Hints:
The complex is a heterodimer of chains A (839) and B (373).
Chain A: E1 2-4, H1 5-8, H2 20-29, E2 33-40, E3 48-59, E4 66-72, E5 83-87, E6 97-101, E7 106-107, E8 111-112, E9 116-118, E10 121-123, E11 126-127, E12 150-151, H3 161-164, E13 169-175, H4 186-197, E14 219-221, E15 227-236, H5 246-254, H6 262-274, E16 278-282, E17 290-294, E18 300-302, E19 308-310, E20 316-320, E21 323-327, E22 331-332, E23 350-357, H7 359-368, H8 374-381, H9 388-403, E24 406-415, E25 423-426, H10 429-434, H11 440-449, E26 453-456, E27 459-463, H12 474-485, H13 505-519, E28 523-524, E29 530-531, H14 533-539, E30 563-564, H15 569-581, E31 587-594, H16 616-624, E32 631-638, E33 640-642, E34 651-652, H17 655-669, E35 673-677, E36 683-693, E37 699-706, H18 708-713, E38 721-726, H19 727-730, E39 749-758, H20 763-774, E40 778-787, E41 796-805, H21 814-832, E42 835-836
Parallel strand pairs in A: 14-17, 28-31
Antiparallel strand pairs in A: 1-13, 2-13, 3-4, 3-6, 4-5, 6-11, 6-12, 7-8, 9-10, 15-23, 15-24, 16-23, 17-20, 18-19, 20-21, 21-22, 25-27, 26-27, 29-30, 31-32, 32-38, 33-34, 35-36, 36-37, 37-38, 39-41, 39-42, 40-41
Helix pairs in contact in A: 5-6, 6-9, 7-8, 11-12, 13-17, 20-21
Chain B: H1 18-34, H2 38-49, H3 54-62, H4 67-106, H5 125-140, E1 143-144, E2 150-152, H6 153-156, H7 167-171, E3 188-190, H8 195-204, E4 209-218, E5 230-240, H9 245-259, E6 266-273, E7 276-285, E8 309-318, H10 320-325, E9 334-341, H11 342-349, H12 356-359, H13 363-366
Parallel strand pairs in B: 1-4
Antiparallel strand pairs in B: 2-3, 4-5, 5-9, 6-7, 7-8, 8-9
Amino acid sequence: MRVPLSWLREYVDLPAGETGRDVAERLVRAGLEVETVEQLGGDLKGPLVVGEVLSIEELTGFKKPIRHCFVNVGDANGTGEPQEIVCGARNFAVGDKVVVVLPGAVLPGPFPIAARQTYGQTSAGMICSARELGMGDTVPDSFGGNGIIVLPPEYEPGTDAVELLQLVDEVLDIAVTPDRGYCLSMRGVAREAAAAYGLPLADPALLDVPPANSFGYLVKVSDPAGCDRFVARTVVGVDPNAKSPIWLQRRLQKAGIRPISLTVDITNYVMLEVGQPLHAYDKQRVDGPITVRRATEGETLTTLDGVQRKLAAEDLLICDNSGPIGLAGVMGGASTEILDPAAGPGTTEVIIEAAHFDPVAIARSAKRHKLPSEASKRFERGVDPEAARAAAQRAVDLLVLIAGGTAEAGVTDIAAPHPVRTITIAADLPDRVAGTAYGRETVTRRLQEIGCSVAGADVLEVTPPTWRPDLTDPYDLAEEVIRLEGYDNVPARMPNVPPGKGLTEAQRTHRRIGVALAGAGYVEVNNYPFLGDTAFEALGLETDDRRRRTVKLVNPLNDEEPALRTTLLPGLLGALRRNVGRGNTDLAIFETGTVFLPKDELTVAPRPAVDRRPSAEELAALDAALPDQPRRVAVTLAGERLPSGWWGKGAQASWADAVEAARTVARAAGIELTVRQGQLAPWHPGRCAELVVAGTDRVVGHAGELHPRVVKALGLPARSAAMEIDIDLLTADGAEKVNGPAVSGFPVATQDVALIVDDAVPAADVEAALRSGAGELLEAIRLFDVFTGEQVGAGKKSLAYALRFRAADRTLTADEATAAREAAVAEAVSRTGAVLRGA
Amino acid sequence: MSAPNKSYDPVEVEALKPEVVEQARDEAVAAFAAASTLDELKQAKVAHTGDRSALSLANREIGALPPHAKAAAGKLIGQARGAVNQALAKRQAELEAERDARVLVEEAVDVTLPYDRAPRGARHPLTTLAERIEDTFVAMGYQVAEGPEAEAEWLNFDALNLGPDHPARSMQDTFFVQAPDGSADSGVVLRTQTSPVQARTLLDREPPVYVVCPGRVYRTDELDATHTPVFRQVEGLAVDEGITFADLKGTIEVLVEKLIGTGLELRWRPSYFPFTEPSAEIDLQCFVCRGESVGNPDRPCRTCSSEGWIELGGCGVVNPRVLVACGVDPNRYSGFAFGLGLERILMNRHNVADMRDMVEGDVRFTLPFGMEI
Lengths: 839, 373
């Protein structure tokens, strides 16, 4: 809602020096979100006056046609002599009234105006266009459009045009929250301003309205639930050529509504003033009585915007004998539209509709037909049903006053009975909600200020005003009191929170994983979880890969990415590529987040009632309808993992780094991982590790080098590596409690052993065998060399281990250590076919 | 070695004459002093203290002396050798110290050489900002609660007093999840706020409830400098006996003080959220210009767009209808709730001009934030 300050002052006698910003600050504290305060004509300075064009001389020989004019500006130039002005515009003629800016003035910009020589003539001022005067970027034709302004003939030359065109003003732009529908009107905002300043309100809806009678336009409401009020008035003898006066056009313009024609402008003006949407019909085009009813499926209506709309059974309609003539509360129909005299005989007889419709019906129709209109916006949020009569009267008055019409005596007013809503509220409820003591008198006074009638003492019986349909329960009233008393005046104190339990194990683990990866040199990124099939193609997933089964959005941001991720890799690899594209060559990044995995059985989530706690079955059904959303962590690396430098060569990121990242994650979670040779897209088939929780068969993720085809498809650096692991699966059993080891003070005995095995034998198996064979004396084992070559034979590899032996209670003899080593080797030989090298 | 000779006259033994002994001693001391390297000193040591040195030879003569003469001669030689050894040790120490000093000089390096061998990592500032807020509340005794991002519509809207036709429902541009039949009637959305975690928590545990809920939320905004369709909130909820708006104010004041600093004014603006009543927007006085840029075009403030205030988030007293829908007795319990947008706090607290930087994953953006903020 755009509120011109000059207009607001008509209803509230605000202090003279109060600026738009001052008023905005008060309204903000009362709960109106004033987004901007626009300064109109802030740097404008006169003289700016009405002029009458006396003569026009067309100058030729220039690149464009130029006019040399003499303009009567009255006494405004101090001499009374005609003003000599050169002008490039052409949309005016001798005798026209125009707006002239004289030397010494400043136009918005600021552009100081001075007399000057141009096109061989003196130009002492300018004939102005609306844009030059700062009247907005889109100027209606009534203000000359892109040309200069031609005023109605009645204004005297020399009249001050700053005042006439109301060029200096401030406009408050207010974002009205859905509960404050009444503030979509000057009346509502003025009421808030009056309360904020403690001033009286001149209510524009307080008008003398003749009572309803039987000879008004015939209206039949067959759906009183959808339309509980319908006021109709008729005006005849309207001058179709009458134009909206400048003040009316300017107010509409400042409020952000484009002037169209006098009758339509008046309905819009009254809507802005009182908040009641009106509709004007050309009475001669309406065929018989008006009926309000629901549509029948398949009916059509061509609305004012020229679009033929297929109606749904729920749509509330205004009809005549010919069928639908309007989508109630949303938009009128084309067939009974007010006619523009420029395109034939204009409208001379008007029916004004001021009705009250069911907010839900209007909201649904507006949504269904994608027609959010000024009218529907107001009906959805609640319009004062008691304002309908006054609004219709106001429109009639303006049609009579400005358009020369005659109000017919018939007054139609169909009203479904409205139960009086009374709310019972304990007088101390606002105190208890706010945590302060207002007292009963303050509570009563504040409620009366917003239009409630209040009775009672400790328990109040409150009847809210008709324009506040949002006030339905005691807490609504408590909020009003607290808000008007000022949130700033509520004291601050701390609740008495019982002792807390801190973070959960899972939360601590999630943090440790992030810290561990960042400590290992990975940088965290957050990607959107949206993706499409192309992402799966790029990863080389088989058509039956489970990850292709996704949760899909009805309204994705991008039609190419309609699904939610089932793996973190597409987003993460995208971030890798983006970084590489920006010149970062050595990268290690990670992401943690949820993936979305559809359940095997898809169901629809119920919508239980809200007047009670849902049943256990309902709650279970809610969760059953949600996809599984486990938490994952993934890393990817490219380029140098350890940089080269003056110290020597670094190390390229490789599959091994990706596997190590998985171990880093597992260690942070207190879980031991074992690694097996795996095969899964998008990894290199020979360089993919399957990550398994030690001692179980539970696969929790994969790591390794990416498949070269994937690297190529995604434009990644060669040999990029990646890891993805499911944190929830990893930590499903929790970490085992660590018992402090007994640290032996006896000396260590180190023995090396080199074993030759087939290439295909996993090093992990050899190590496991050595460990198991070596027995308790083995303190540590470390693979320090892997060798392939002629010496060990084709298809073989040599694995060299350093074994550290130590006893808890004695110094080991060389024989004991050797015996343990031999036992270790024997186990490796028997399990893996290893041959002791050099044996 | 010759046997004792009773007729032997020590005075007659040339090598044991005091002047000869003293000369040998002085020559040795001089030779040590003259040695300029440890090698020279070693040679001098052999020459003057070795088996063939004058003093050693003289010492041997003592054995042949008559008993009455042995003591005097022994003393003479002993003193001379003592002096020699002392001189040697002293010179040895001097030369070693010189050598050590020289080696340390030679071993000097340029310690300004860059050494970025261990790659640096960092956590995303939105993650660490959420943790900082969590920690503030955990210290007060709150728990951290979490909930799913793909959420039941009922929990995201209905339970929070946003019925199917509520105008506020269209204010929040919601991503709807496809139903099995492809329609929008799955009853599942991407949560538009972290508030459904409120409902989940109340359905899950008995009051008193004090929780904060950080998480990602979704709205159908296009990504630009100040909007992102996927963003983060931290929700707070307290439900207990006697909770009031005043408790909310005190709690937010503590949070702001911990998070941003002291001495900044807060503005409590009445607003509207279906799940709270009364509702408020919290504005924080701009900590860059402290409001001095307002109406002052010469001193524009980028942080607050010269408005003097920065929007922190929304809050209010929990609407009793929410309590009812979650099975909490509104006559016994009341509560407050708040929701803060983390991106905006990060932008303001750390002067981030463009929200896209938080989204695109450029490591240059994240690295400076390190492990905690």
